[in-house]
Fold this sequence. Notes:
Elements: E1 15-23, E2 30-39, E3 44-48, H1 55-62, E4 70-75, E5 78-79, H2 85-91, E6 92-95, H3 106-116, H4 121-134, H5 151-165, E7 169-173, H6 181-196, E8 200-204, H7 208-214, E9 217-222, E10 225-231, H8 237-254
Parallel strand pairs: 3-8, 3-9, 6-7, 7-8
Antiparallel strand pairs: 1-2, 1-4, 4-5, 9-10
Helix pairs in contact: 3-4, 3-5, 4-5
Amino acid sequence: MPNSSEKNTESTPQLRIENVSLKTPIASSYLLDNISFQVQMGDRVAIVGPSGAGKTTLLRLLNRLSSPTTGSIYLENTEYRQIPAIELRRQITLVMQESKLLGMSVREALAYPLKLRGVNPSNIRERISGAIAQLHIPQEWLDRTELQLSTGQKQLVAIARSIILQPKILLLDEPTSALDAGKAHHILEVLTELTNSQITILMVNHQLELAQEFATRVLYLQQGKLLQDSPSHQINWWEMRQNLIKAEAEAEQEW
């Protein structure tokens, strides 16, 4: 899948992260340390790095599930703390690696957030049909419960639910970790089509070959620090892979 060129580089960034740090409860250590970057509308950003680098922590900050100790985050020039959390999460949707259906069937779980927003039933049905068609989700899954789905199937349902919500920004934490190669590549194709429609995606993914296929930009985190922020086509992927292997090995030795 070819990478598209950088988009809207001259415009106001959709997301702006300025000198953001997040301390652990032990004040001497940081989960994120003085992170700064910008994201333009329609970007496809891969967030990579070794285990414990702060990748998921960063997604949680961007969805306001936690707040930075220092620094600021802006959505279209409005500081996060000035936006009600519910309104912000309608614009920025987070899909965690392990998503729950909360005892509902797949159909109910897909429809529930739209019902809360007052979307009419015919529109709900239309959105669900469109999302499951895009992701090749079989109709028979709709009446299944969480216990009747594999981990990979639950990931697909969670991605479908996020697409149905039509957010401005989609945050994905390892969305292909439980999928086979064919399904993973198809998911990336669908996500790329979404960014062509001006949805912005930030995706944590430990599989560099998938990050390379998907991303227009790459953020490399290690020990809470942002070590690299580069357009995908400028990255030495072999060198990044070696750095990642080395960092993982060093982390294991520390344990």
